[in-house]
């Protein structure tokens, strides 16, 4: 039976559709505790940031962001949703502040990077208006189920950046499946981030092909502030 499931997954169109139906049936049996509650529970019970923060997807993300930071001489970075810090182990950042809603995630990151003076970590509730040249949202947007939380995340992401915003996410609307809700976030940017322009769109080197752990639906979207905003 396991072999048959793997064969079905590999069939273009059919594979992803079957996988999606299976996920729908599975998650309908579990009550959803809300975006914040889900991630707090997940880390508290030994869960991690997910496949996107490990192995070749993590390496791909690090390659893109490290190169961007170096090429654009970025000196300060804020990330909203730092997670368990595994992705950050590959980062080459001059100065970094990571925020998260999970106390356990902050504890894990603070402990692992305790001797790294270039990195610090805070609960999202501790945000006090900090700004950085670059702000990051990586594999976060489609995990924000509630509209108010999503809008707050997007607003803070852009208002706290002085030069660049990098979003790593899918960009299409889709139904809510337990802890995921796909959003066409570029529509929000076009409507509310009027002083920002899309500098670059980088497709994923390992696009999703029906096997959850081998690819991603996320691409890179890199935004740059207008000259007027930078000179304020």
Structure description:
Helices cover 36% and strands 21% of the residues. By secondary structure, the chain is of the alpha/beta class. It folds into 2 domains: 1-30, no CATH class; 33-230, Rossmann fold. The strands form 2 sheets. The chain has a 7-stranded mixed beta sheet, sandwiched between helices. The chain is globular. Mean pLDDT is 86; it is low at 1-28.
Outline the fold blueprint.
Blueprint: H1 2-9, H2 14-27, H3 35-44, H4 55-71, E1 77-80, E2 96-100, H5 103-112, E3 119-123, E4 132-138, H6 147-159, E5 161-169, E6 176-177, E7 180-181, H7 185-192, E8 196-202, E9 219-225, H8 227-230
Parallel strand pairs: 1-2, 1-4, 2-3, 4-5
Antiparallel strand pairs: 5-9, 6-7, 8-9
Features:
globular; 232 residues; 36% helix; alpha/beta; Rossmann fold; single chain
Total domains, how many? Answer: 2
Could you give the order of strands across the largest sheet? Answer: 3-2-1-4-5-9-8
Beta-strand fraction estimate: 15-25%
How far the N terminus sits from the C terminus, by CA atoms, comes to: 62 Å
């Amino acid at each position: 039976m396991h072999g048959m499931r793997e064969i079905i997954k590999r069939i273009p169109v059919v594979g992803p559709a079957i996988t999606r139906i299976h996920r729908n049936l599975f998650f309908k049996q579990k009550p959803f505790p809300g975006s914040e509650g889900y991630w707090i529970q997940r880390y508290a019970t030994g869960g991690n940031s997910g496949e996107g923060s490990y192995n070749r997807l993590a390496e791909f993300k690090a390659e893109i962001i490290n190169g961007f930071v170096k090429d654009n001489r970025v000196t300060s970075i804020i990330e909203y949703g730092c997670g368990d810090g595994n992705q950050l182990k590959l980062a080459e950042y001059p100065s970094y502040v990571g925020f998260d809603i999970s106390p356990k995630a902050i504890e894990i990151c603070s402990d692992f990077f305790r001797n790294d003076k270039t990195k610090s970590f805070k609960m999202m509730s501790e945000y006090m208006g900090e700004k950085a040249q670059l702000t990051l949202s990586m594999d976060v947007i489609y995990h924000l189920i509630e509209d108010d939380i999503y809008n707050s995340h997007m607003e803070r992401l852009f208002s706290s950046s002085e030069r660049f915003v990098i979003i790593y996410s899918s960009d299409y609307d889709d139904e809510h499946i337990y802890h995921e809700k796909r959003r066409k976030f570029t529509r929000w940017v076009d409507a509310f981030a009027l002083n920002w322009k899309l500098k670059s769109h980088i497709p994923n080197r390992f696009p999703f092909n029906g096997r959850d752990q081998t690819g991603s639906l996320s691409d890179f979207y890199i935004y740059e502030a207008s000259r007027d905003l930078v000179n304020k």
